[in-house]
Write a structure and sequence with these properties.
This protein is an alpha/beta fold. Helix content is about 50%, strand content about 10%. The chain has two domains: about 65-185, no CATH class; about 190-530, Spore Coat Polysaccharide Biosynthesis Protein SpsA, Chain A. The longest helix is centred in the first third of the chain and has 35 residues, at about 150-185.
């Protein structure tokens, strides 16, 4: 046979010597032995390493013993039975199965006594001594399951109980709100007594009437625009007195202060008698009743026109609850009171004045307010403290933005402000005809679809774009419904008890009452006779 050429010959296989093969095999055996020895060392380590650090930290914070962690712990078994039995006791009582509830409670007591004795002697419970207790409890728990007191039933009953409690809480909250609103609206007997006694004094004491006539000789002050003019519209004699007294006592120059008070016909004589009998640091005080304003009639004032509407009268005065769709606070007739809406007619009430500070009757003055009259309102009509530090004091809180008139004309996040202490430029007011703007919006809210209650919503619409923000220290709000920062109270010029908890009511916030009461002289005979204290 002919041999292949050299290029096509198969390569010659090289063979390792047998010595090398034996060496490699020996190395592999040694490595296997080393690995086995390490595994043995790991398994021989103490068992305490099996417990994690996390579990140790949990156990340290609980009253758990090693005996309770044991898989065969009698103590843990009894404790679990007690926990389950306590749940069954509650369910049994709700099901009116009082005898079974008593049996469970008695067995729980026996189990607790056994655990207590074991803890006292500091030795684990033995199966022999606890067998009877465990068996008796197990029988009762089995019996509970036969009564359908299983876990699913417990969960369903607890859910039903929670729902019932939530409904009960809602009902109690609603009643509390209603009663609180009623308490805030009612006139205290002491205030009613004061009004009656003052009216009697006025008609029975000619000296008081002569005294008031003498004071009218200084009526030129009532029109002097170089003085500091304040106005209060109220039927609350004592509250108005606190406003005047606190302003006078904290004024640097009280003889330059003029108070214009407007009340209703019922309280007119009583108000005149009170301010004729008492001196207020030389402050000039004038009392009027809004029934004397000839221009205040239904043809000019939308609120008076609405009062003549039968639907409006039914809404506010008939007591029909319209299925509780409208909260009780929205149905308060005071929101249609002319004393409440008179703030939109200040230029008509005081035609000779150019600038006036409006004060609510639930405020207390702590500082001299003369600086308000030198504030530049930059062509605006209303100087007020803004209340938009929180979202619920913006326009959307007070107005119905589902209505196109509101949605198209006003930003829902626009900053709100507060009535209660306002500086009004009456010259600009008359020039812009702000009262006409108020009439425009009031007439469009006959059906109460733009806003529900009060004078602040129409005020926000009327003075929109016409309000100059004031320093917040001029007007501190919230003392009639919430906690207020003590530093704000200390620095505040005017403290406002807005809310239901007025300081002259029993439901007033106790810690804020002294701020108001220090301006009331409770030693006056009339106040003592009417049980003011």
């Amino acid at each position: 046979m002919r041999r292949r050429p050299a290029d096509f010959r198969r390569p010659v296989r090289r063979r390792f010597p047998n010595v090398i093969w034996w060496a490699l095999l020996g190395i592999a055996v040694l490595l296997f032995i080393v690995i086995l020895s390490k595994d043995g060392q790991i398994e021989s380590r103490p068992a305490i390493a099996k417990r994690s650090y996390k579990h140790d930290r949990i156990i340290e914070g609980l009253n758990i013993t090693d005996e309770m962690l044991s898989a065969n712990s009698v103590t843990r078994q009894i404790s679990d039975q007690i926990s389950l039995a306590k749940a069954f006791v509650v369910i049994a009582k709700e099901s009116n199965n009082l005898h079974f509830a008593w049996e469970l409670s008695a067995q729980i007591h026996n189990s607790q006594v056994l655990l207590s004795s074991a803890a006292t002697r500091r030795t684990p419970l033995m199966t022999s001594e606890s067998e009877t207790v465990i068996r008796d409890m197990a029988l009762l728990l089995y019996q509970a399951q036969q009564f359908h007191y299983d876990s699913a039933t417990i969960i369903m009953r607890l859910k039903a109980k929670i729902q019932a409690l939530e409904e009960q809480m809602g009902s109690v909250t609603e009643k509390s709100s209603k009663y609180g609103q009623i308490a805030a609206e009612e006139v205290p007997k002491s205030l009613y007594c004061l009004g009656v006694r003052l009216t009697s004094k006025w008609f029975g004491n000619l000296t008081l009437q002569r005294k008031l006539n003498e004071r009218k000789q200084i009526s030129t002050k009532l029109k002097d625009n170089s003085l500091y003019h304040f106005c209060v519209f109220s039927d609350n004699i004592l509250a108005t007195s606190v406003v005047v007294n606190s302003t006078a006592l904290n004024s640097k120059n009280p003889v330059r202060v003029v108070f214009h008070l407007v009340t209703d016909e019922i309280n007119y004589e009583a108000m005149k008698a009170w301010f004729s009998m008492n001196e207020f640091q030389g402050v000039t005080i004038d009392v009027q009743k809004f029934e004397d304003f000839k221009w205040l009639n239904a043809s000019y004032v939308p609120v008076l026109k609405q009062l003549q509407d039968s639907e409006t009268q039914s809404y506010y005065f008939s007591g029909n609850n319209d299925g509780n769709r409208t909260p009780i606070k929205f149905r308060n007739p005071k929101y249609l009171s002319m004393l409440n809406h008179l703030r939109f007619y200040i230029p008509e009430v005081f035609p000779a004045l150019k600038k006036v500070v409006f004060l609510d009757d639930d405020v207390v003055v702590q500082r001299d307010l003369s600086g308000l009259f030198s504030i530049d309102l930059n062509g605006n009509v209303n100087g007020a403290v803004e209340t938009c530090m929180e979202t619920f004091h913006r326009y959307h809180k007070y107005l119905n933005y589902s209505h196109p008139l509101i949605r198209e004309h006003f930003d829902p996040d626009a900053c709100g402000w507060a009535f209660g202490m306002n500086v009004f430029d009456l010259v600009e007011w008359r020039k812009i005809n702000v009262t006409g703007i108020y009439h425009h919006w009031q007439e469009r809210n006959v059906d109460r679809t733009l806003w529900k209650l009060g004078t602040l919503p129409p005020g926000l619409l009327t003075f929109h774009g016409l309000t100059e923000p004031l320093d917040p220290s001029w007007h501190v709000l919230g003392l009639g419904y919430t906690n207020v920062n003590p530093q704000l109270i200390e620095k505040g010029a005017v403290l406002h008890f807005n809310g239901n908890s007025k300081p002259w009511l029993k439901i007033g916030i106790e810690k804020y009452k002294p701020l108001w009461e220090k301006y009331v002289d409770f030693s006056l005979p009339l106040l003592q006779q009417c049980n003011f204290h």
